[in-house]
Description:
Elements: E1 2-4, H1 8-11, E2 19-23, E3 38-40, H2 50-60, E4 66-70, H3 78-94, E5 99-103, E6 118-121, H4 125-128, H5 131-142, E7 146-149, H6 155-164, E8 168-169, H7 172-176, H8 178-194
Parallel strand pairs: 1-2, 2-3, 3-4, 4-5, 5-6, 6-7, 7-8
Amino acid sequence: MILVHASPKTLAPYRTENLGVLCSPRCVYADDIQEWSWAADNDAFSKWDEGKYREMLARIRGRKGCLFVTAPDVVGNAIHTLRKFEQWYDELFDHDLPIAYVGQDGHGFEPYWDWFDAFFVGGTTEWKMGPEAADLVREAKERGKWVHMGRVNSYERVRYARSLGCDSVDGTQFSWFRDAKLPGHLNALRQEMMA
């Protein structure tokens, strides 16, 4: 599934079972997302804002169809991400939405597998495409977790994410160049699923 930072109204012409909405603290589509598969990111890669993140959590609370809500993370740093996850866990758990833990560079330890519902492949490009991330994805799938890979902006990376077993991906190309990129990628996914 491709998750796109765009409103459901904007995505309606492209709608297929392989397309979902990705909210963030900057763009919350709380009133329109319940008819879609959707997830909520935390904006840590672009511009983390604790206040806006909390506002997003309040707006999406109780909404149906949520695949995951990304816990706060620190890009490129697994230890700091784990500490941040520990700080936020109780608050996220209280919102009764599926929690995604973000894997990051230097993840030479077991995450709290029982504490989250989805595994988000973050980190630098080198880490994301490397063996440590692949091992964590395999472990997550064996444990029945939803797996999402962020910053997927090419056919090659979409194929790689699918080969690992990722359930969903996102990338700025799908938001910024919707007309040019989305139809081709959705068609390729549909053909792969039919093969």
